[in-house]
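anyone seen this seq b4? input:
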Amino acid sequence: MADASTTIKQLKDAVAEFERERDWRQFHSPKNLAMGIAIETGELLEHFQWISGEESFEVVRDAEQMKQVRQEIADVFCYLLNLSLVMGVDLSDAFWEKLKINGAKYPAEKYRGRYKIDE
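predicted toks r here
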């Protein structure tokens, strides 16, 4: 199932079913899931430690490393989906709300091509 044809609801449903089959809800407190996100993010970061920004683009060319990076990205995403389920967060609503806030905070006409404004 590709991004273009998969809904967030389908992904949440799949994660919820996986959790139900294993009776893991008892372990999925917001704290534990947030910690899981941090831990899996750390594992993702390990693939880029000690290399330059330019070198990080080369990871895509290494099939084995890309396989591992994809798995870490998926782990982070699974924890995020689970956290959103446990906390009742609609990810699409949260995404669009935050994008609007960031649009106001970082207007394109001021920030195009830069990450900060010299005051």
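The chain has a mean pLDDT of 96. The helical segments are 8-22, 30-46, 53-56, 63-87, 91-105, 108-111. kinda curious what u guys think
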